[in-house]
Amino acid sequence: MQYKYEDYLRSAQYIREASGGFEPEILLILGSGLGALADCVADAASVPYEDIPGFCPSTAPGHSSRLVLGELEGRRVAVMQGRMHCYEGYTAEQTAYPVRTARLLGAGVMVVTNAAGGINLDYRVGDIVLLSDHIRLMGDSPSIGTNIKEFGPRFYDMTYAYSPRLRQLAREQAEKTGVAVREGVYFYFPGPQYETPAEIRAARVLGGDLAGMSTVPEVTAANHCGMEVLGLSLVTNMAAGVMDKRIDGAEVVQEGNRAGRRLETLLRACLPHM
Ligand code: HPA
């Protein structure tokens, strides 16, 4: 399936009508176990994905499936409480569909959070990592197919995929709020199985610090349509083979819930300056 520009216009119009003409400045995508922040949004309109034309429901554990629109720290935000993943059977285009829709609604900034496995041996479970870049060797680009020129050019730059300005802001606010952050490169694995230890060793050699199954389709689409991106990962487990034990999906969600507060503090501190 390839979406047309008109499909995105229709989705944006539906959300506009469902939210009383709300125009978000910032799109927030909340990952595994990190969705609670959406409950803090003031004067919120909540729109289930299943009601929005073109949106797909999120079926992953720890993910709700609704778009919350309202104010947070004085900014107009659209919060995706739950996201889509390619491992749910969605294409990268479908997974990134809400990003382009948010762009049409007016969002110029995207903040994306996720749970990830720590590849970097200096990381610890519970670390928050500011994304400096990503590596995608597997999985499609959301821009495959006919280019929609209203969003951006056929070939587009990814040099500053994770905005240097927003990374600097996050570092400053981390310092101010006392929330420790690391910095690293996200290595995309489409999943849904966790990686093998050999895959993780290979990713480490190639420059990956974190392993994850999300984020890259959305960040790629956001760059295509000219949005500034801030990415934050939470290390919910050390990646396969780092420790001599199996990876447990329940622990991933649990760790997300546990560290959510710190990530929330950092995000709230950044929002007014974005
Ligand atoms: N690998 C891939 N995705 C993940 C992991 C992991 O170890 N932990 C949380 N999401």
Radius of gyration: 17 Å
- What is the fold named in CATH at topology level? Rossmann fold
The largest pleated sheet is described as:
5 strands, mixed, barrel
The end-to-end distance, rounded to whole angstroms, is 35 Å
- Number of distinct helices: 7
Note the beta-strand portion.
Answer: 15-25%
What molecules are bound to this protein?
Answer: hypoxanthine
The CATH architecture comes to 3-Layer(aba) Sandwich
CATH homologous superfamily classification? Nucleoside phosphorylase domain
Helix/sheet category: alpha/beta
**How many individual domains?**
1
CATH class: Alpha Beta
**Uncertain segments of ≥5 residues (pLDDT<50)?**
none
Envelope shape: globular
The largest sheet has its strands arranged as 5-8-7-6-9
Average pLDDT rating: 93
Strand and helix order? HEEEEHHEEHEHEHEH
Task: Please tell me about this protein's structure.
This protein has 274 residues and is an alpha/beta fold. The protein has a single domain, classed as Rossmann fold, CATH 3.40.50. The chain is built from 7 helices and 9 strands; from the N terminus they run αββββααββαβαβαβα. A 5-stranded mixed barrel has the order 5-8-7-6-9. β3 (66-72) and β4 form a beta hairpin. α1 (5-18) packs across α3 and α4 crosses α7 (249-270). The two termini are 35 Å apart. The mean pLDDT is 93. The structure holds hypoxanthine. Hypoxanthine is lined by residues 115-117, 189, 194-195, 211-213, 236-237, 239, 247, 252.
